[in-house]
Amino acid sequence: PGDGSWGGDNRRSIGGYGGRDLDYTTGKMFFGGGGGGGHENNNQGGDGGDGGGMVFISSHGTIAGTGNIIANGENGQSSDYTSAGFAQVSNKDGSGGAGAGGAVYVTSPSTIAGVTITANGGSGGNQVLDFGSFASSNEAQGPGGGGGGGYIKTTGISSATNVNGGIYGTTNSSTMSSFPPNGATSGALGLVESAVFGGSSLAVFNDTICAGNSGLLTATGTPEVGSTITWYNDSWTQVGTGLSLSVGVLFSDAMYFYGSCPGTDFDTVWVIVSPAIVIDDTGIIISDETCIGNDGSITGILVSGGIGSYNFLYNGSNASGADTLGAIAGNYTLEVSDAGGCSDTSGPYTIGSSSGLIIDISSLVITDESCAGNDGNITGIIVSGGSAPYSYAWNGTTGSGLDTIGAAAGVYTLMITDQFGCSVTSAPFTIGSSTGLSIDLSGLSVIDANCLASDGSITGVIVSGGTLPYSYTWNGLVASSEDTVGIGSGNYTLEITDNAGCNISAGPFTVSSLNTLVVDSIGFVTVDENCTAVDGSISGIAVSGGSGTYSFAWNGVTSSGPDTVGLGAGAYTLIVSDDNGCADTTGAYLINSLNSLSIDTIGFVATDENCTASDGSITGISVSGGSGVYSYAWNGVVSSSPDTVGLGAGSYTLVVTDNNGCADSTGSYILGSVNNMIIDSTSYIISDANCSASDGGVSGIVVSGPGLSYTYSWNGTVSPSIDLINATSGSYMLIITDDNGCVDSTGTYFVNSISTLNVDTTALVVMAENCTAADGSIVGITVSGGTAPYLYDWNGVSTLGSDTIGLDSGSYILTVTDDAGCSEVLGPFLIPSVSSLFTDDSGILVLDAHCGLSDGAISGIIATGSGTLNYSWNGLVSSGTDTSNLVAGNYLLTVTDANGCVDSLGAYTVSNISGPVIDSSAVVITDDACSQGIGGITGLAINGGSGPVSIAWDNTDTVLDLSGLYAGNYSITVIDSVGCVDSLGPIVIIDSGNPTANFTASPIITDVNNPLINFTDASSSDVTTWNWYFDSLGTDISTNPTFSFNESGVYQVVLVVLNSFGCTDTASMEITVNAVDSMTIPNIMTPDGNGINDVFSIAGLLPDSYVAIYNRWGQKIFETTRYLNNWDGRTSTGERVPNGTYFYVVVDPNGVEFTGSLSVSGQ
After folding, report:
1. Domains and their CATH numbers in the chain
2. Residue whose C-alpha is closest to residue 1125's, from 1156, 1152, 1141, 1101
3. How many CA atoms lie within 13 A of 573 on its CB side?
4. What is the pLDDT of residues 852-885, one digit of tens each?
5. Is the peptide bond before 181 cis (omega within 30 degrees of 0)?
6. DSSP string spanning 180-243?
7. Predicted confidence band at 1013 (pLDDT cuts at 50, 70, 90)?
8. Is 666 left (phi over 0), alpha (psi -120 to 50) or beta?
9. Is the whole model's pTM more than 0.70, yes or no?
């Protein structure tokens, strides 16, 4: 603008620059300028192109490879093309100008290679006129100009840069061709500049250290101009400046930042901590050197951690692994190092030397084999020395122990072998034998017992051998000798035991029972009993043999002899016994009962009773035989003779008895009852009753028979004559009884009721009730016949006539009764109820309530009827059929019109749609730890509710799962789209706090000869990482480490513990290591009595020193608090200890402890 060369119709062929700095200012960058829009008056002009963008890259590394950095301007839009009509020219509006190229600025410490940078200007839009037939026009706005080239500035580039200007657009206007260049300009070439790199070239390599060591980070290169190298930790806290940074003791990888300050160049670097070597000797197995030699071993040590392969040293010498085999007795220390130069030590471990095997027979006991056999024993042998476990062999046969039991007599030798094959053999031991018992039965005599008497005996047994004295038992009962007398019958066994416990037995021997008693019944005589006279007898039985006086018993009843009299009928048995208890039996003998009584019934006559006259009889029976006077009884009633009279009908039996009690009976005889009365009803006449009148009757019946007089009863009512008179309608029966008690009956006879009453319903009219108006009626019934006047009854209510009006709907019955009691019943007649009330719920809409709110509704019911309608929902008056503001429940609508017509609809159920429910069944609560804000609440779920649910925590969070929480109480509330709410809380996040560091050491005070200290962790149970710092001497990460302080001094031991959350705590302790004094402790003694090395003598021992001696099983065998160099290899009870390896503990008055092994030999 303002340039005169742009005046008139001329145009510059080159346009302006793109995104470079202007000629009149420096140090600035610009976006490429946008192209101008084409001029238009026909709405066909083209849009201008956008200017190129701006790219700024500041690199502190290398930019290389392939690719493009582009900030080109956009092409201008051509004018809109349309076809021209007749005699018209179209597309005369101007095209858009192109956008200029943008700006690119790249800085890098090294030359940019392989990457092409482009900031070209865009091309101008074209214009194409279209001429219709016979068209002529010179008007044209022209094409668009090209955009200017952009701006590129770098600190060095070897690849291509492009800042070309865009070309101008073209036109087919003959008029515009007179304006070079076609009315538009091209873009000018842009600007490419270079600059000196003023950034940082710093580089720092990661440092790798061993755990527990410090690191050193060193920078190379230069910082940004005018800045200082600055170091930061991973929290961006400045920790140093300058070319290097010393890092303190680390146990885990640490990240640091370095760069220029002030400046923008910062990068990360790591101090990488190699995994610590961990020597685990919890499973260590130390095998002492045996008698074989060079066979000690240390196994079971495990090594982990570190990097790469391990190198092993035992006592400074190379080893193939953590195990050492084929070693001699001594102390061994293991050192393990890895490929990174990190190392750890463990030990020392002591390999002892085992003494040889020793057999001690001072307590030997040999038990000879007894008469029982295979019960000899050798016990009491003691073995010591060698290396357990031991194996045992008696006479070459492997045994389970030192003792041999259950052995036969003979010579035995014991060989003992320890686990390393060392063996020792005993002298031979002899088990003797003893002789057994013998029984001689050649003179045996057995004498039987008499029946039950104890007068048997067994004698003549002779015993020899065994060890005197002998003991005797007969059938388990102690006896004084081998003979037994005064015994009853039975089997007897003798057992003899000698003084050595050997047994022998004889028998069983049988002592029998002898019986000579004889009962002779050849001449026995029985006499039967006469009926029940008890006059039977048994005689003629003889008894012989046996011993002493006899006793007799018939059927268990004592008798004075073998004969018995005065017997009743029955079976009888005799038992005879003597003074020795011998017995014999005879019987049974049968005594019968005899009867000669006889009854003759050949001529008997039975006469029946006449009805109930008791005039029957039985006669013609005769009796003979028997003894004395007879007695008679008919059916148990005494009679003076066999005849009986005056009998009623029934069954009769006669029993006859004589003076001996003999009895006989006859019967039973049956007497009947005879009735000869006759009733003749062939000519009976019935007279019917008039309806309910008492004017009916029955006549024409005749009775005959032997009776002298008769009584009559109609239906139970006594009648003076045989005819029935004055009877109402019904059924009747006649009963006649004569003076002999004979009874007969006739009937049933039916007296009918006759009526002429007539009711006519042909003109009947029934009118319905209008709902509840009580306006129904029944009319048109007529009554005739019968006996006037008539009575009318409708449903129990008397009326004046047969018509009834003013009726409710229902069922009605009419009863008409004339004066004669005749009646007719009509009906039922049904009066319906007619209603004009109409309801329709087919279009009902029920809206449920939400979470207990009153927002339910019912609508869509239609009701029409007579007059004004009344509505009620569940008994509450409503203005219409619709109802709202409902809680969940069942609802019934009642509609009533002006005529009282009622209709009920429903029930309709308004359900309750539950609100949102917070489900905490799967909730996971993560507590915070040492105020790190790592707590969290996850796993909550929301069930139910309506529509979207909003979430609100009391800490303003609006999501279900929370993280990054500190200790505290947290509550959540959820609300659905209808306002239903649920809440939960408080949910408590606690802070688990820091771990607690603590440990013990043993010993706390020591000397350089006992440099190994055992450290035992006593920290809280949540500790997961242990970092031990043994002053400046070394570190360890095991739980319970050991460490050797090989130089005297006071050392600070620090334990730093971490839990799984990274929380820490620290504990410390001082360890005192004293210098070696002049005390010398021997490791061998030979208490063999030669005056040389017979006692455990410690040179330079301070007074009042404590000394204790332990065997290899950890048992204390000697102890004193004032040792006088006088232990001679004996226990505190004075017993000599076996040869072997023992262990001493020496504590001087200053509390310095000395331990070691002591070999005792020559005992």
Report:
1. 1-197 (no CATH), 203-274 (2.60.40.10), 278-351 (2.60.40), 358-431 (2.60.40), 437-514 (2.60.40), 518-594 (2.60.40), 598-674 (2.60.40), 678-754 (2.60.40), 758-834 (2.60.40), 838-913 (2.60.40), 917-989 (2.60.40), 999-1074 (2.60.40.10), 1084-1160 (2.60.40)
2. 1101
3. 7
4. 888 899 999 999 988 889 999 998 989 999 999 9
5. yes
6. TTTT--BPPP-EEEE----S---EE--EEEETTEEEEEEEES--STT-EEEEEETT--EEEESS
7. very high
8. beta
9. no
CA dihedral sign, ordered 1042, 1047, 1050, 1055: negative
Residue type, 123: S
pLDDT confidence tier of residue 889, bands split at 50, 70 and 90: very high
Q: Are 973 and 950 in contact (CB under 8 A)?
A: no
Mean pLDDT of the chain: 84
Torsion sign across C-alpha atoms 952, 953, 959, 961? negative
**Residues whose CB is less than 8 angstroms from the CB of residue 688 and which lie 6 or more positions away in sequence, other chains included:** 696, 729, 751, 752, 753, 754
Residues 474, 494: contact at Cβ < 8 Å? yes
* 280 SS3 class: strand
- Distances, alpha carbon 494 to alpha carbons 262, 294, 712, in Å: 124, 70, 109
3-state secondary structure 133-167: CCCCCCCCCCCCCCCCCCEEEECCECCCEECCCCC
pLDDT of residue 183: 54
Greater confidence (427 vs 639) lies with 639
pLDDT at 150: 86
**Listed residue (461, 469, 464) closest to 498, CA to CA:** 469
- Taking the alpha carbons of 833, 838, 843, 844 in that order, is the dihedral positive or negative? negative
- Cα radius of gyration (the chain): 72
- Structural element, H or E, at residue 892: strand 889-896
Q: Is it the case that residue 136 has pLDDT exceeding 70?
A: no
Task: Look up residue 524 and give its two tokens.
Answer: 């026995």
Neighbours of 777 (CB within 10 A): 16
Task: Order across the sheet with 477-479: list the strands.
Answer: 477-479, 471-474, 490-497, 503-511
- Its sign, for the CA torsion 657, 661, 664, 669, is positive
3-class state of residue 273 by DSSP: strand
Token pair listed for 297: 């071993």
C-alpha distances (whole Å) from 664 to each of 159, 641, 642 are 162, 14, 12
The pLDDT confidence band at residue 5, using thresholds 50, 70 and 90, is very low
In degrees rounded to 5, what are phi and psi of residue 670? -105, 125
- The tokens for 686 are 């019935």
Q: Give the tens place of pLDDT for each residue, 916-944.
A: 999 999 999 998 888 888 899 999 999 98
Render the burial of 726-758: b for 16+ CB within 10 Å, e for the rest.
ebebeebebbbbbebebebebbebebebebebe
* CA 394 – CA 412 distance, rounded (Å): 6
Strand, coil or helix: 103:
strand
What is the C-alpha to C-alpha distance for residues 561 and 546, in angstroms, rounded to an integer?
16
Rounded Cα distance between 549 and 273, Å, is: 125
Helix (H, G, I), strand (E, B) or coil at 437: strand
pLDDT digits (tens, 9 = 90+) for 305-321: 888 788 999 998 898 88
Return the pLDDT at 1023. Answer: 93
Strand partners, 365: 379
Which DSSP state fits 682? Answer: T
Q: Residue 435: what pLDDT?
A: 65
Contact yes or no for 653/668 (Cβ under 8 A): yes
Q: Write the DSSP symbol of residue 803.
A: -
